[in-house]
Amino acid sequence: MSIHASADSVEEQTADMGTTSFTTKVVYGNSASLMIATRPAGYHSAPHSHDCEQLNWLQHGELWVFVEDTAHHLRTGDFLRIPAGEVHWSWNKSDEPCTLIEVHSPGLHADPLVKAFAVGLHRDGEVPDFLGSPINEFLPEGSSFDPTVAEQQAE
Q1: Considering only CA atoms, which of 84, 87, 104 is closest in space to residue 26?
Q2: pTM across the whole model
Q3: Phi/psi class of residue 77: alpha, beta or left (left: φ > 0; alpha: ψ in -120 to 50)?
Q4: What pLDDT does 2 receive?
C-alpha cells in the first residue's frame, strides 16, 4: 500500500446499479473517497441517499442531478454539493457521455458498488482509521418519494 497510486494501478471498472451502470475509478483515504465516474448517454440512476456529503465537479459533458425536489443542470466545469442523507439521483439526457468527479466524506470505500475495486491510499503498515463507512441506500419499491417532481424541471 502507498499514499500514491499511478493512473495505471487504479483500474476503471463498471459500477452496476441494477437498472443502469457507469464506469469509474475510485480511491479512498481515512476521511474521504474520490470517484471519477463516466456516465453513458441515457444514464438514469435510481433515487438513493448515503450518510456522507458529496461534492461534485462535472469534468466533461452535461448531466442533470436531482437533489430532493430540485433539478440542477450541470455543464462542463460546474460544481454541486449534495448534503449527507438527502435523496438524489442523476440523468444524462444528452447523446454524449459525461464525466463527474465525486468526493464523498466519509468515503464510500465500503459501498458494495465499489468495494471490490476501490484502491486505498495508505502507507505500508498504516492501520486505516475511517471517519465512517456509509453505503448507498436505494429507496425501497413502493416508496412515497416522487422523483417526477424534480424531473419535470429538466424538461
Answers
A1: 104
A2: 0.94
A3: left
A4: 94
